[in-house]
């Protein structure tokens, strides 16, 4: 598993808590996609399981380390939804919980990792909550979530929340310059579109997703003067929520532009498009447009078996109607 340099400080801080006996049995790591929280969890897990720790590092030689390296350690449990499913049910939680109350097979620590705690159904979350309230001895729970606010409040209250914050933009820019051949302007844009998460920005800068984003920007530029429905061919993909996020940042940038916030733009490589939006549409229309698209994105993410093409078409028609009513439309 890849290790990232911005994980060094949080790793040391979390391991020191364990060394000083101050670590909480349930850790909830809040991070944006692309921050590498899985690597951080893996590093902590290897240290906890190691039988011959060397300061802040695991030895890499003991039997437990060998089992961890082979991903076959019997006391390390990963709880996630089955392939093809989006939720984690109560049965999986109960099966692991039963094992936790027995002595660990290697005579050391036991670790339960939930890569996405948001996958828990309400029943599964309540079952896990009971275990967190009366944790078995020598057992550590590590939960990860991109949106901890959506977890049960009672579940969050049993955990210590750790925010894995993005590194400084200059640090991430330097790291990305060694990861991609893109220009400094493109790197900064990708970083800001990714909320400052360097690994997410690196993935966005790959040829295929970056070309998709550029195509969307050009499609919006053309659609504003021609036909907004033409945007459907740029949006109607499996990653439609991400594409809507790109569109939403352009609308937000236009609002920033109107308020003199040019230095805070995310899409710094698409300034002409941002200027066009800012000059043609009043703030009230930009604001309502942004709200509409965010609602559309939420529906795509939460409505079961939603008809994506129909939803996007309906949103484009409503957006077209909204823009047509703008007093500045066409100027």
Automatic annotation (TrEMBL):
GO cellular component: DNA polymerase III complex
Alphabetized GO MF terms: 3'-5' exonuclease activity; DNA binding; DNA-directed DNA polymerase activity
Sequence ranges assigned to domain DNA polymerase III subunit delta' AAA+ ATPase lid in this UniProt record: 167-206
Coiled-coil ranges from the UniProt annotation: none
Pfam families: DNA_pol3_delta2, DNApol3-delta_C, HolB_lid
Enzyme class: transferase
Function summary: DNA polymerase III is a complex, multichain enzyme responsible for most of the replicative synthesis in bacteria. This DNA polymerase also exhibits 3' to 5' exonuclease activity.
The name this protein goes by in its record: DNA polymerase III subunit delta'
Provenance organism: Izhakiella australiensis
Taxon lineage: Bacteria, Pseudomonadati, Pseudomonadota, Gammaproteobacteria, Enterobacterales
């Amino acid at each position: 598993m890849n290790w990232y340099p911005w994980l060094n400080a949080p790793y040391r801080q979390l391991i020191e808590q364990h060394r000083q006996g101050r670590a909480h049995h349930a850790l909830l790591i809040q991070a944006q996609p692309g921050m590498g929280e899985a690597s951080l969890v893996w590093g902590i897990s290897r240290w906890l399981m190691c039988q011959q720790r060397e300061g802040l590092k695991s030895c890499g030689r003991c039997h437990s380390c060998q089992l961890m390296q082979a991903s076959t350690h019997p006391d390390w449990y990963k709880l996630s939804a089955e392939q093809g499913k989006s939720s984690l049910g109560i049965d999986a939680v109960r099966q692991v919980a039963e094992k936790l109350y027995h002595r660990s097979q290697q005579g050391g620590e036991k670790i339960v990792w939930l890569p996405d705690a948001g996958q828990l159904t309400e029943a599964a979350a309540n079952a896990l909550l009971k275990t967190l309230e009366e944790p078995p001895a020598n057992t550590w729970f590590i939960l990860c979530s991109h949106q901890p606010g959506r977890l049960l409040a009672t579940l969050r209250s049993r955990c210590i929340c750790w925010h894995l914050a993005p590194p400084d933009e200059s640090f991430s820019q330097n790291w990305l310059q060694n990861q991609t051949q893109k220009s400094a302007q493109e790197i900064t844009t990708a970083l800001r579109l990714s909320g400052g998460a360097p690994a997410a920005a690196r993935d966005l800068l790959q040829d295929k997703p970056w070309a998709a984003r550029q195509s969307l920007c050009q499609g919006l530029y053309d659609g504003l003067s021609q036909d907004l429905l033409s945007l459907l061919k740029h949006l109607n993909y499996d990653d439609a929520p991400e594409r809507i996020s790109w569109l939403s940042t352009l609308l937000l940038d236009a609002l920033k532009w109107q308020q003199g916030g040019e230095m805070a733009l995310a899409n710094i490589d698409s300034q002409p498009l941002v200027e066009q939006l800012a000059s043609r549409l009043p703030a009230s229309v930009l604001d309502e447009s942004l709200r509409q698209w965010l609602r559309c994105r939420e529906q795509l993410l939460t409505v079961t078996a939603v008809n994506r093409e129909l939803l996007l078409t309906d949103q484009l028609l409503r957006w077209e109607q909204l823009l047509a009513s703008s007093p500045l439309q066409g100027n």
